[in-house]
Design a protein that fits this description.
The protein is of the alpha/beta class. It has helices spanning about 15-25, 45-60, 75-90, 100-110, 210, 225-230, 240-255, 260-280, 305-315, 340-355; strands at about 5, 70-75, 95-100, 115-120, 145, 150, 155, 165-170, 185-190, 200-205, 295-300, 320, 330-335. The structure holds pyridoxal-5'-phosphate.
Length: about 350
């Protein structure tokens, strides 16, 4: 425990210590089951109990209405960039997409392979420094796709896009960070490796009427939501240990008091960093205030060499993975649910010391 660093990675990311400790305790032998979770048949009663608990806890935490199906899939959030259009862009063959960052762009590029994509907003021209205004939405589109939280650029949709089309969102980097009203979405998906657990699981929450859409004829059996929904995510072997880790994370969140409590903690944590950024002039926070993410905080010194030195010196001080994404440079502190406030306070102290020790030319 004592040699654990503060890990600000964007994902795979830091996992809550009580979750890791529980997994460690149960690693060799899970309860009275006589084996590790990794060794259980996914069809066994002992494993199904874990799976069902994971789903029930997620439903409880997110207040997921009954007319939604929860799936635990593989292929990461990136697989959803293809699975969403293959399964859902099948009524009119058109969908609206918002271009709010790199992953949004990847989703657009993939969807363009399957139908007509109408980009209804983009901030590519201003380096994605805020959430785009949208215009020209098509209420008849098969869905509107957007990325709730833009991990690389540090922006978040605080207001939902206005359309009558069903909303489909990539919530990979902010799911469980606060309550979201699931009933406003037709589908939510999220790769696990930020707020849910280790990489290898992708959570899909889909309204049942969307499951009735007939997938494109060539859609592989494995990639049809219908297949996985009918089979309770077990058409084939699911990522059993990843789902167990997700279940432990959901238990931890429930014990903390649920998502309202988590949001309060996240707001306080993010404020420590943003208040500091706003109080000085050495570091620049490029994101416009009303688009700021609580999960990924980006900043630069304005000098690429200093930025590099910052990340290297921070790592020596036990604050690791603070270099910005390779596409954008600068710095990024990913402060997901599992990052304690003490880690952010230590980061701010380091930032202040670094600024004093490294005056700009
Ligand atoms: C918002 C968002 N969408 C999609 C992805 C891609 O996820 P995966 O690597 O699980 O495919 C990421 C990864 O960081 C992400 O942050």
């Amino acid at each position: 425990m004592s040699n654990r660093v503060y890990n600000f990675a964007a994902g795979p990311a830091t996992i809550a210590v009580p979750v890791l400790e529980k997994a460690q305790q149960e690693l060799l032998c899970h309860g009275a089951d006589g084996m590790s979770v990794m060794e259980m048949s996914h069809r066994s009663g002992m494993y199904l109990a874990i799976y069902e608990r994971a789903e029930a806890l997620l439903r409880e935490l997110m207040a997921i209405p009954e007319n939604y199906t929860v799936l635990f899939l593989q292929g990461g959030a990136s697989m959803q960039f293809a699975q969403v259009p293959m399964n859902l862009m099948t009524v009119t063959g058109t969908a609206d997409y918002i271009d709010s960052g790199n992953f949004a762009k990847n989703a657009i590029k993939e969807a363009q392979r399957y139908g007509k994509v109408n980009v209804v907003g983009s901030t590519a021209d201003i380096a994605y420094s805020r959430i785009p205004e949208i215009s020209g939405v098509n209420d008849e589109a098969d869905y509107l796709h957007f990325t709730t939280n833009n991990t690389i650029f540090g922006t978040h949709f605080w207001q939902l896009p206005q359309t009558k089309a069903p909303l489909v969102t990539d919530m990979s980097s902010s799911i469980l960070s606060k309550p979201y009203d699931v009933s406003k979405y037709a589908m939510i998906y999220a790769g696990a490796q930020k707020n849910i657990g280790p990489a290898g699981v992708c959570v899909v929450i889909i309204r049942n009427d969307m499951l009735e859409r007939e997938p494109m004829a060539f859609t592989p059996t494995m990639l049809k939501y219908q297949t996985m929904a009918k089979a309770g995510s077990m058409y084939n072997t699911p990522p059993t240990f990843g789902i167990y880790m997700a279940m432990l994370t959901f238990e931890w969140l429930k014990e903390l008091g649920g998502l309202e409590v988590m949001e309060k903690m996240n707001r306080e944590k993010a404020a420590v960093l943003y208040d500091y950024l706003d109080s000085q002039s050495y570091y620049i926070a490029p994101v416009e205030k009303d688009s700021r993410s609580m999960m990924n905080v980006t900043f630069v010194t304005g000098d690429k060499d200093l930025d590099k030195k910052f990340a290297a010196d921070a790592a020596k001080a036990g604050l690791v993975n603070l270099a910005g994404h390779r596409l954008v440079g600068g710095m990024r502190a990913s402060i997901y649910n599992a990052m304690p406030k003490a880690g952010i306070e230590k980061l701010v102290g380091f930032m202040d010391d670094f600024a004093k020790a490294n005056p700009k030319a």
